[in-house]
Structures are given as structure tokens and as C-alpha cells.
Amino acid sequence: MNSYIKYIGLLDKKDGCHYIDLTEGLNVITGRSSTGKSAIIEIFDFCFGNSENTIPDGIITDNAKLYFVVFEINNTNLVLARNQEEKSTYAFFRIDPNFPEIDVLNLDYFQPDYYLPLKTFKEELGRYFGINISSTDEDNQVLNYKSKKGRPSVRNMISYILQHQNLIANKHSLFYRFDEKEKREKTIDEFKIFTGFVDQDYFIIKQQINDKKQEYEKKQREAALFQDEKKKRITELDELLEEYYMVAGNRLLQGYSANNMLEAPKTYLEKIQELETVKVDDNSDVFRMQYTKLETQRNELLASRRKVALKLENINSSIQYAKKYSETIDKINPISEAIKEDSHCPFCLQDNQHTNRQINKLTDAIDWLNSELRKAPLMIDSFLPEKQKCEQELSAIDNQLRHVRDEINKILKVNAKLEKNKSLEEQGFKIRLSIENLLEWSLERKNQIQESNIEQLKTEIETLEKKISDDYNVENKLKEAENFINETMNKIGSKLDFEKSYQPINLHFDISTFELYHLKKNESEKAEKKIYLRSMGSGANWLYSHICLFLSLQKYFCSLDSKCLIPTVLFLDQPSQVYFPTIVDIDKEGFNPKKLKELEGELKNPDDDLSAVTNLFNQIISFINNVHQEFEVKPQIIISDHADNLDLETGSFDDYVRRRWRKENDGFVDLSKLSQENANDAIEN
Questions:
Q1: Distance between CA 312 and CA 567 in Å, rounded?
Q2: Closest CA to 508 of 533, 478, 477, 539
Q3: Which residues contact 10 (CB under 8 A, 6 or more apart)?
């Protein structure tokens, strides 16, 4: 968003106004330590909705009544303000095209009607910057175990705007607020929102896609379950058809398999229902043939079972023997060697060869015994797979036997029912009803699957995914953004004073993780190595890496023009600190690089460091001018630093200085103004 900060200021307890007026482009606030330079960034953050007041305790907080920030956006003014309270729960929000002259601004301007609860304030601020998305959830199913993401927060824009003093040259952190995992993830996730890649419709379509995918997967599971159940029902139907054949003496439907019948249940239901009665062949001996067949099958299974059972018994005996053998030899300590001394006759002193031969035999016996000791555990292990195989075979045979016995019992039950005056027609009709029930089950499930329109659902998903791809193409846009940022970083970095081991600089920013690294070519391995910021050596490398990344982000935001929601504003706090530490700069006369080096304990000439700082400012000015020329947008960069009077290539350093605080009473809070206010109070009293 093309906008800039016009004023940052405070009203003291006497209603006096202390402020900094700013413009587009480069704005420098310079001065000695402890004058309030670093407080500027904290005041902005507080007025932009930070729930905590992190303004440094001291002269500013002791005297401030209210803090304010004024944006100029589209020829009007957005005024934000917060009262000086440690836990401020309200914030001032006002859009005012007729903002008064800053020198006459007082507490009367900040009427209570414009104060909003902090949560509402952030939402209104977000809407003003173009955040019109109320929900960023892409999958409703995730809400079953995660909380809603809700609307994007304007606070997540802050990570692209602020580079604090303790962050700008930090080797571990790049972005403000990234020490909190949730805020880091949201900021990365909302990049595509802030850059205008997506709108509310994008998330609605994403939810529809995920909902339909869930439904599609459910329907697929149901269809697969139907197929699995149908396989079981085919076996059941086969048995019923055979049972009917055994009872009636003829087939219910000639020449059709159970599989065909369940595949086309409607057709076969109609065929069965066309049969008026159950026709029984009184002379049929099918039941006798089936009974004989089943008895033969049972005998074969029993024989197989006994054979496997005997084999299993032998295996169990072998395992028991091996266990006993192992337990016995565990008590025997392995022998390492036999007696090796030569034997001599005590009378003639001749060698006794017979003893040596016996020693050799004993050595062989020891080796065999040790080998057997090692084999004992392996013997048991070798039997276990065979045991498992036999047990599985027995289980399968037992299942077959149960089935055969059940079939035999069915034949016997038919005769038993006949003896109880239940006719074969009656028994056949009952079986026929069971067959019809199976076919009706298959028909009902098949209709349910067809009515669910799985293919139609798949087509709808593909249509929505195509719309997401055609209308938004987020992945491609993110990749283009990454390439743009990387190209810009290295163009800027080529003009900064990185250490020689990192020249030419080859920085890469991963848009999916927000990690930054230098890609170094390894000539020996003919490969590239990622060197992350934390491993990039000196403070100067860390500083320039931050500068390259955040200037590149600003350029990318400017290139998007009105599509980008993030204000084109960047705060850089104390970038020269890696060369001239700020804590020792208390000189009230001016910025003295040589004296600072002496105070720091360094005796070397400061010219090289001063040259590096001057070059940094030159490159920032050049960057702003180039972006303005290319995109007709001038990013606002606000630098708080103690460096001063640098010999710049473009214009005088004073052209960019908005405030210079060196004298006794200088600072964000003008002590001379406070003295005058106190004097006026004394006169009035």
C-alpha cells in the first residue's frame, strides 16, 4: 500500500506536543545515546496495536500522557493513538482529512468517542489497510482438533516493517515476533493475503474442495467396503444355492453363478419372483451325493490334520530337547585351550610324540564343543518358523472341518425336519427367501453407491481445483516473489561490504519457511552448500543480510502497487552499531568516529568503518530512488542512528535528517519545552 508516516509524537502531561515530522523516502533521526531514538520504533509499534507497552522506561514514559502516529494514505490522514499505560486496552482510531496543524495539537483532539477496544481497533485497522477476509481456514475438518485461524491480523504486517536495534544485526533472528511459533506461522501463511494473491473466495473454494474430498474419500471407502462385503456374500449365496439344490433336487436358476447374481441383483430378483412355487424332485438323490462328498472331504481333512499334528509334535519335542541341551551347556564354561607344553621322557629325555597326538585330539574336541555351544540358541530359532507354519496349517484345516461339519448338519437337519412334518417345499421356500434377501441387500447397496455420484464428485473437485489454479495460481506467484526477492537481494548485496569469503554474495530467501542463506559453490565437490545466517561470520555480514532482505521485500511490495496491503514503511534502528557501538556515543558536540573507536578500546583508523557506514546510506538512498523511478512509489525508510554528517554521493546528509539530538536538552521529549511549561504553570499559580 502506497502510504507513509507523517508524524510520530507524544503529548506530555502538560498538553505539550513533542513530535517528528517525516516524509516519503529516507528519514534520519540522529543523535547521541539515551535521547529516545530507539523509542521511536516502540512508539510506532504501540500505536499500531501492540498489546504491550515496550517503550523504554525513562524521561519519555515519565512525561508522556499519550502517543500518536499519523499516516498519510490516499490524500487523507489516519490517526492512531494510545494512552501511556502499561496495560492499555483501548486505542484511538480516526480517519481525518482535516488533521490540525501539528504545533497546535493537544489532548482535546483525542475525543473518547474515537477510542476502541484493542481487539476492535486491530480489526478496524486491518480493514482500513484492505484486510477484508474474515476466515482463513482452508479445511473445516481440521477444526475438529484445532482452533479456527480466524481473520488475518494487521499485527502480522509489523514483521515486515520493524528492524529493532537488537534484531537488525542478529544472526539467529530475521523477523520481529518470530520467536513465537504461532505468530511466525501466521505471518508466513498470511504473506499471500498481504500481497493480494488471494481473497475471501479463495478460502471458501479451498474449504469446498476439502469438504468434497472428504466426501469423495468417504464414498470410495463405502464402495470398497461394499466390494469386500460382496465377496463374503458370494460365498454365503453359493452355499444357499447348493442347499436349495440339495433340498429341492434341482437348481433354483440353472447356469448362473452367485457372483453374477450379486452383480445384477435386480435381474435375478425378477427371475426368482417369476417362479411361482418351489418345485421338488422327489426322486432326486442329490442330498445323498452331497452327503457322501462331504463325508469324503471330512475324512481327507482329518487325515491331513493328523499328519500336520504329528509333525508339530515332533517340532515341539525338538524345541524342548534343544532348550534342555542349551540349559545344560550354559552351565559349561567354554574351554579356550589344551595343554601345549611338550612331553619328555624323564630318563632318556626323548620327546613323547604320543602325548602330542592326544593333545591335538583334545584341541579338536574343544573346538567342536565350543562350536556346539554357539549353535544351541540357533537350533531353537531354526525350529520356530516351521512351528508357526504347522500351527497356521492346523488352523486352516480346523476352519475347513467346521465348515464341512456344518454342511453335513444341514443335510441331516433337512431329514429331521421332514420327520417333523416340514415338507421339502417349505424348506426350499425358506432358503429361497434367504437368497432373495441377499439379492435385495446387494441391490440396495448398489443403488446407494450409484446415487452418491462418486464420479460427479470427482469432476466437481477437479473443476474447483482448476478455478483455484486459473484464478489464483498461488504457488506460481509465491515462486515468482521468491525469485524477485532473491534477484534484488543479490543486486543490493553486490554493492555492500560483505566479507571477501562471501563475495560474490549469493543470498537466497525461502518463501515457504522464511529462512535466509548464502548459497556457496563448492568447487571440489561441484555442488552448492547452504550457509545459513547464523554461520555467516561477522556482524557486518548479518547486518547486510538483514538490509538486503528487507529492502528487497520493500521493493517487491512497491512493485505490487495497490494490490499489496502492507504499508511501504521500514524502520531500521541503529544499523551502524556493528561498526560504532551506540552505548559509548555520549558526545554532545557531534558524531566523532575516531573518538568512538578510542572509547571502545580500538586504536585502528576508523576510516574503513566510516566508509562502510557511508556506503550503506548511499545504497539505501540509491535503492529508494531506483524503486521510485521504476514503480512510481517511494518507500519510506526511517533510520534511527548516531551516525551523522556522512559525505553522501547524493545530496547532503542534512537533506535526510529529520531530527538531530546532540545538545543537553535534545531528545524525543524536548526538555526545554518541559521547562517552559513548568515555568508557565508557576506564573499562572
A1: 81
A2: 533
A3: 17, 18, 19, 43, 60, 64, 65, 66, 67, 68, 84, 668, 669
Helix extents (H) in 472-562: 474-493, 539-560
Distances (CA, A) of 340 to 337, 346, 363: 8, 18, 10
What is the rounded distance in angstroms from the CA atom of residue 611 to the CA atom of residue 598?
18
**Whole-angstrom distance, CA of residue 383 vs CA of residue 389:** 10
DSSP string, 359-399: HHHHHHHHHHHHHHHHHHHHHHHHHHHHHHHHHHHHHHHHH
The pLDDT tens digits of the residues spanning 39-68 come to 999 999 999 999 999 999 999 999 999 999
Q: Which of 179, 145, 175, 143 is nearest to 157 (CA)?
A: 175
* Rounded CA separation 27/513 (Å): 31
- Three cell numbers, residue 182: 504461532
| Peptide bond connecting 504 to the previous residue in cis, omega within 30 degrees of 0 | yes
Q: Answer yes or no: are the C-beta atoms of 636 and 550 closer than 8 Å.
A: no
| Nearest CA among 550, 545, 554, 575 for reference residue 642 | 575
CB 43 within 8 A of CB 20: no
- Looking at the DSSP bridge assignments, the partners of residue 570 are 637
State residue 685's pLDDT score: 47
Q: Is the pLDDT of residue 342 over 60?
A: no
Helix (H, G, I), strand (E, B) or coil at 629: helix
Q: Hey, which bits of 236-330 come out as E strands?
A: none
Q: How far is CA 179 from CA 153, 173, 184, 428, 509, in A?
A: 17, 8, 7, 78, 18
Query: Exposed, middle or buried: residue 657 (CB in 10 Å: 0-12, 13-18, 19+)?
Result: middle
Tens digits of per-residue pLDDT, 550-564?
999 999 999 999 999
Quote the DSSP letter at residue 223.
H
Contacts of residue 646, defined as CB under 8 A and 6 or more positions apart, other chains included, come to: 610, 613, 614, 617, 653
Q: Cα(390)–Cα(387) distance, rounded to whole angstroms?
A: 5
Whether the pTM exceeds 0.70: the reply is yes
DSSP string over 121-140: HHHHHHHHTT---S---S-G
Query: CA torsion angle for 302, 305, 310, 312 (degrees, to 10)?
Result: -170
Would you list the DSSP string of 307-369? HHHHHHHHHHHHHHHHHHHHHHHHTSPPP-----PPPB-TTT--B-HHHHHHHHHHHHHHHHH
